[in-house]
Amino acid sequence: MNIIHRISFRTDSPAAKFFEAEGFKIKPGIINGYDIGENDPKWPRIQEAVTRYEIMDFQYKTDFTKKEIDGAEFLVLSPKTLFEYPQPSDDFGYKETTYKPGVGCRKCSVGLEQQKPFSIKKAPKWGKRNILQLNWVFGEYFVSKELKEKLEGKIPGVHFLEVLKYPKGMPLDDIFQMVVEKRVALALPENAAFQICDVCKGKKYVPGILARGFQPAPVEKDFAIAQSQEFFGDGGTAFRITIVSKAVYQLLLEVGIKGVDFIPCSP
């Protein structure tokens, strides 16, 4: 396991001279930045410099070994691609047209329950990928027609929903929402950071806790695929994470899924 940090600093700051002395190439422009892992021999010096020069440090992701991934009992899906925006996008109007009225919070998005298909302006050109997420809707996955046909009926607790072309409302023929039916609680640490909405008092955990190390493990173990009961997010977004069993992970590899990373849950 290697935790990757994304660090950035102003090119005209004292930090730039430090990084240049460490062998980093300083590029023209206002800001310079690098990704560096905690396994890098330079990391202890970089970590000290982050504090000394007040450098912006974001725990970007964690790279896992193949052994860590293949040996996990459960894994979380993490998208590589975000596409389009749910429509209507003005004033987040999709929340009114897609979700049940009077259920959940329109400000923070905690507790929203979908009742109608999502609408977007156009279908993706899939290329080498076959699964993605929409901007603003970070808890739902959308797949190509080809991947849908390979998966349909093979994963308990999953069905597929059409996606509509906005504004005409006609189904698009090469994108489908993969709807996960089951919810499971997560074994989150007691000190996990969270926010409380000032309107609905709903609770959502800060997404940053998902960027470091193993993902929180599900409390329940008897399922193929599920979403977390807990919400994650910031501002007006709230999403559930999607968890798959080892068997489903292997199936997804067999059918050639392209467009997500698999992050192992804690043993």
Concise overview:
The protein contains six helices and 16 strands. It has helices at 14-21, 43-52, 66-70, 94-98, 145-151, 246-254, and strands at residues 2-10, 31-37, 56-63, 74-79, 82-83, 119-120, 131-134, 137-143, 158-165, 170-180, 183-184, 194-196, 203-205, 225-228, 242-245, 260-264.
Provide a descriptive summary of the structure in words.
Helix content is 16%, strand content 32%. The protein starts with a strand and ends with a strand. With 267 residues, it is an alpha+beta fold. It has six helices and 16 strands. It has a six-stranded mixed β-sheet. A five-stranded mixed β-sheet has the order 11-14-15-4-16. Strands 2-1-3 form a three-stranded antiparallel β-sheet, with no helix packed on it.
Task: Name the descriptors.
single chain; 267 residues; alpha+beta; 2 domains; six-stranded mixed beta sheet; 6 helices; 16 strands
Secondary structure layout:
Layout lengths: L1 E9 L3 H8 L9 E7 L5 H10 L3 E8 L2 H5 L3 E6 L2 E2 L10 H5 L20 E2 L10 E4 L2 E7 L1 H7 L6 E8 L4 E11 L2 E2 L9 E3 L6 E3 L19 E4 L13 E4 H9 L5 E5 L3
Parallel strand pairs: 5-7, 6-9, 11-14
Antiparallel strand pairs: 1-2, 1-3, 4-15, 4-16, 7-8, 8-10, 9-10, 12-13, 14-15
The structural class is: alpha+beta
Tally of discrete structural domains: 2
Number of DSSP E strands: 16
Rounded to the nearest angstrom, the distance between the terminal CA atoms is 14 Å
